[in-house]
Hints:
This protein is mainly α and 195 residues long. It contains nine helices and two strands. The chain has helices at 34-45, 51-57, 69-75, 79-82, 96-104, 110-120, 129-141, 145-166, 177-186; strands at residues 124-127, 172-175. The longest helix has 22 residues, at 145-166. It starts with 33 loop residues before the first helix and ends in a 9-residue tail after the last helix.
Amino acid sequence: NVPPQGGRKHPEQKMITIDTTNILFICGGAFDGIDKKIARRLEANSIGYSSSKEKDKIDRANYLKYISPADLKSFGLIPELIGRLPVLTHLDPLDKATLRTILTEPKNALMKQYEKLFQLEGVKLEVEKGVLDFIVEKAFEFKLGARGLRSICEAILLDAMYEIPTGKATKEFRLTLGYAKDKFEKSNVNRLRVA
Length: 195
């Protein structure tokens, strides 16, 4: 064995064999824009005598429910990968009620996290109901989903989180709708609108 040019020997590399028989692989993604390809395919298929009946049955609000391997291929995925995915399905977009639930109800909900952060500084965070509706509305309008909720909350509360601890006299912070709108408009988040 001749050592490489650096004078060191490479350690022996061991290959580990894994039996993937009982392993479930899940591939997921947003695939933004694939609904246009699905719509194009559905419109092309609905030509003929029964076309008017088929067009009436198509749910135009959610083309994703009609996804097929051909749509993934036209979107850009390679056929070798598509062929290894035996089940193809979609998830419905989150509605406003679900976004509101994510924002407020789970054990580690976003608003509960912010209340705790303010509490660590000795400040009680009071949030008006209209603010929660505003956050949900913006996440829904910009099609940001659940991840967008955090970005919007951060844009609204970031300044308060830094300013309040410096002025120790504050014991309570009331988040009003006017304050939330003002901070949101001044932030970069309003540029995140999905095309």
